[in-house]
What does this fold into?
Amino acid sequence: MKRSAKRPYHHGDLAAALVDTAVELIAERGVAGFSMAEASRRLGVTVAAPYRHFADRDALLAAVAAKAATDLTAAVAVEASAVPEPTDRIAAAARGYVRFASANAALFQALFAAGLDKRARPELEEAARPLVEDFFHGPATSLFDGDEQAGEALALAVLATAHGHAMLLLDGAFGPDTDAVGQAMARAHAAALGLVSGREALRSADLPTKVAGK
Amino acid sequence: MKRSAKRPYHHGDLAAALVDTAVELIAERGVAGFSMAEASRRLGVTVAAPYRHFADRDALLAAVAAKAATDLTAAVAVEASAVPEPTDRIAAAARGYVRFASANAALFQALFAAGLDKRARPELEEAARPLVEDFFHGPATSLFDGDEQAGEALALAVLATAHGHAMLLLDGAFGPDTDAVGQAMARAHAAALGLVSGREALRSADLPTKVAGK
DNA sequence: GTCTATATCCCGATAGAC
DNA sequence: GTCTATCGGGATATAGAC
It folds into this structure.
């Protein structure tokens, strides 16, 4: 796995190369095991070079998280965009969400387990908006005949369910079986269908209203 | 849970004190910001002392995670054990799960965001077994008239849903509103009710059989 | 069981040359 | 935009005294 043999980056796109290498490192050692120094070493540049492109370690991690958000959106789109029927669409999105988390664990962890302050990085939420709108909120709202608030409740419920399955899968809660991934995807899919089927419980739920004080 | 005395630890229970201090540190700086050195400093012992009680940093973190598992179980019990009706019981458990995650974020993160290898620490799963059995698997199975496999599917779906809501809440996905906690709890509760209501979608789903709880 | 002392290592980040 | 050189800091973990 030597990369030092050739030097494709010295006069190339170091910023992008750093993001790629960060993903590699996170995959190998986890988010905590990632460091600017090690990434520099792998790319054959000195430890000072990355700071021309990223203000600090967190900035590079945020760039990785941003890539994760767009890649996740694209992956779910591949799985669900061809499915027009709302119930199947949102269920396919849930399954695709879990699939991406497993197939791109490093990216997923950069987005959700890097300890990044999302409130300070609204661009991440922005990057994930099409995902939420097109594959969760949209179908959910049409399942409620256009009721926006009920649709949002269902969308968030399915999203949280997919997220929970993804996190538990990465945590090993589905066991060491080789098909733990397939199992988690099937369970997330079925749970989404169940939520759709029982969606009336979400419509009437008295949730704290969206905005009270501003 | 007292730390009143000035120096209760020098000849007291350093192991337990280290766990408490680790929780404090994680609450203040996150899991990544926790170190044996800083914990030692706070307790007024030298950096060598903790190694008489924990083999390494990960061992101390695992002890914190174990406490988290038992505390989580106890907290859910407080919220759901008095509720006999299966549907309300499992929904109360989901809500209690989210409440605990918010009220004890440091413990929850030690359990789920510390990067501990769960497969290498089966005692954590063991500690959470009563939680899964009594408040998820039990009621879910009775909702399926004793069908164990269908019950497990519903239990895992509700558990994953609660987990997803908890993780998203800690990630700030429910916004900076002061009642984000109450909202997340209400949503998890409603989603659990929805899953119960639409549980037929889970019974028929062809899922691989074996599963590890939690 | 705790302390003193220390070995060893790695990291983030910067200044200034080229 | 990258390199050289480096500062300053903090971490894990161990050896041996008490």
Remarks:
- Chain B touches chain A through 55 residues (CB under 8 Å).
